[in-house]
Write a structure and sequence with these properties.
A hairpin with a 6-residue loop joins β1 and β2. The protein has seven helices and four strands, in the order αββααββαααα. The strands form two sheets. Strands 1-2 form a two-stranded antiparallel ribbon. A two-stranded antiparallel sheet has the order 3-4. Helix content is 30%, strand content 10%. It starts with a helix and ends in an 18-residue tail after the last helix. The chain folds into two domains: 3-35, no CATH class; 66-175, no CATH class. It is of the alpha+beta class. The chain has helices spanning 3-14, 66-73, 76-82, 121-124, 135-139, 152-155, 159-175, and strands at 15-21, 28-35, 109-110, 113-114. InterPro entries: MRPS18B, Ribosomal_bS18, Ribosomal_bS18_sf. Belongs to the bacterial ribosomal protein bS18 family. Mitochondrion-specific ribosomal protein mS40 subfamily. Keywords: Mitochondrion, Phosphoprotein, Ribonucleoprotein, Ribosomal protein, Transit peptide. Its main location: mitochondrion. It is found in: Mitochondrion.
Length: 193
C-alpha cells in the first residue's frame, strides 16, 4: 500500500460530508468536507501514556511506628487538633443526599494514597496508628457506659479501619491492657437439686 493511498483512505474516513448554500448564486454547491482532527495515521507512533499515582497533588501515606503514635497522643499538637474530645467527635461524613448510607466506605486509602476527599478520622491523621499497644487511642472507640465498641455509624470510621480496630481491641483485652467487665452468668440451680 502506497503512502498516497493510505493518506487518501485515512482522509476519506475523517471527512464529514456537508451541503453548502451559495449566497452569490442562490444555489446549493455540491458537498464540502470538514476534517476531523481527532484521528491519527496508522503508521504514526503513539505517545506513551503518562502514569500518575492517584494525582500529582496527593502524597503517599508514610507508615509511622506505634511508639511515635503513642507519643503523639500526649503531644501539644494532638491537644491543639483534638482537644479533650475523641478523634472521631468533630468528624462529619460527606455523602450525597439527605439520608446517609447505612455503611461507611470500604477504605479511604488505595495504593498507599488517600483516595477520597473526606477520609475517615483514622485515615486522615497518619499519626493515629491502630495497635494493641496504643491503649489511649483504642479507649476512644469504646463506650464508657457499656464497654462495647462504638459502631462505625457513630464514629464514621471506614470498614477496613473498623475491622482493624475490632482486632486491636480484642488483642488488647486478651493481653490485659484494656479492662472490661466479664458478663454475669446465671445458672439454673434446678438441675442440681
Amino acid at each position: 500500500m502506497s503512502l498516497s493511498s493510505l493518506i487518501r483512505r485515512t482522509l476519506s474516513a475523517t471527512f464529514i460530508p456537508r451541503q453548502v448554500h451559495s449566497s452569490q448564486t442562490g444555489t446549493r454547491i455540491g458537498i464540502c468536507r470538514q476534517i476531523c482532527t481527532t484521528s491519527t495515521l496508522k503508521n504514526q507512533p503513539e505517545e506513551e501514556p503518562v502514569e500518575e499515582v492517584a494525582g500529582s497533588k496527593k502524597k503517599a501515606i508514610v507508615q509511622i511506628p506505634v511508639e511515635t503514635s503513642i507519643q503523639y497522643l500526649q503531644s501539644k499538637a494532638y491537644n491543639i487538633t483534638y482537644g479533650n474530645n475523641p478523634v472521631w467527635k468533630n468528624y462529619r461524613r460527606n455523602h450525597k443526599g439527605g439520608i446517609p448510607p447505612s455503611k461507611t466506605r470500604k477504605t479511604c486509602i488505595r495504593s498507599g494514597v488517600i483516595a477520597t476527599g473526606n477520609p475517615c478520622p483514622l485515615c486522615r491523621d497518619e499519626y493515629l496508628v491502630l495497635s494493641p499497644k496504643n491503649v489511649d487511642l483504642l479507649k476512644q472507640f469504646i463506650s464508657p457506659h457499656t464497654g462495647e465498641i462504638l459502631s462505625y455509624s457513630v464514629t464514621g470510621v471506614c470498614q477496613k479501619k473498623f475491622q482493624q480496630l475490632k482486632i486491636a481491641i480484642s488483642i488488647a483485652k486478651d493481653r490485659g491492657l484494656i479492662t472490661y467487665d466479664v458478663p454475669f452468668r446465671e445458672y439454673d440451680y434446678s438441675d442440681y437439686k
